Model the fold of this input.
Amino acid sequence: MSRTKAKDEGTPRGQARREQILKAASDLLLAEGYAAFSARGVAARAGTSLSHVQYYFATPADIVAELLDRFVTAYSAEVATHYHASGGAPVARLTRALEFLLNDEAYRRDCGVFMLEVAGFASRDRGIAAALARYYEVYLKAITAIVGDLNPALSAAQRRARARQAVSLIEGMAMTRPFLRDDDGAFSAREAARAIERLASAG
Done:
């Protein structure tokens, strides 16, 4: 994402101001959705002026694109951590990673906002479209590596193709997870992991 940096962006004070704006933006996005999202609304929620917000982010889309970048960076790292945290067969490690992903309330909430709200606007804004492309590339890279662990015999192209299917499966389950009983969480993770294992092993 190319943008003009604020002069104080590299200073502790500048970083704190940007974090304040991004926190307010995230809260606003979660509360009101992207259709009602605006720089003026972010400024009001952050308790600062509109010009202050625009000093760090030229457009509302720039704010959302950075939030999306942060979202995928944080959660791809979390999934990798849970997957590699302990030993066992790849499908068992994948199950543990999916138990986190499908049962973490913050992830499900943020995923709903970004995938349902923000993705709908990607066709209208280059910055958001670019951030969404980065999101899927990072996500796909992580799942492609896991698919390779599940079936090392797959070619690079096969791993990536099946990882795309796995990503769709995971996102679909993340969207429906809030409608399941609390005790269905572990079951859903196990079934998702088994489905991905079958995808990886299919001829």
The two ends are 39 Å apart (CA to CA). The chain has nine helices and no strands.
